[in-house]
Amino acid sequence: MLEDNPYGMLELSSDASDAEVERAYRRLISQYHPDRLAGAAPELQQQAEEKASEINTAYDRIKQLRKK
């Protein structure tokens, strides 16, 4: 699903500007970055790592799509 709609992962529509994509990425990655949960339970840290990975993958995919 992520490959189909990386914009959805960043809570954006496909017509979002580059600046909107950048803002959404920064907002979400700061919210879900694993370092924010350094003292939390291992399960929460794992969830944060997975979510951050999904966010990074979506952002990279959008950048790749826009280069074409």
Layout of secondary structure:
Blueprint: H1 6-9, H2 18-32, H3 42-67
Weakly predicted, low-confidence segments: none
Supply the helix-strand structural class: mainly alpha
Measure the end-to-end span: 21 Å
Number of helices: 3
Helix content: 55-70%
Instruction: Kindly report the average pLDDT value.
Output: 90
Percent of residues in β-strands: under 5%
Gyration radius from CA atoms, angstroms? 13 Å
Biggest sheet layout:
none
Oligomer: single chain
Task: Label the overall shape.
Answer: elongated
The run of helices and strands is HHH
Counted beta strands: 0
Descriptors for this entry?
3 helices, 0% strand, elongated
Characterization of this structure:
The protein is an all-alpha fold and 68 residues long. 66% of the residues lie in helices and 0% in strands. α2 packs antiparallel against α3. It is elongated.
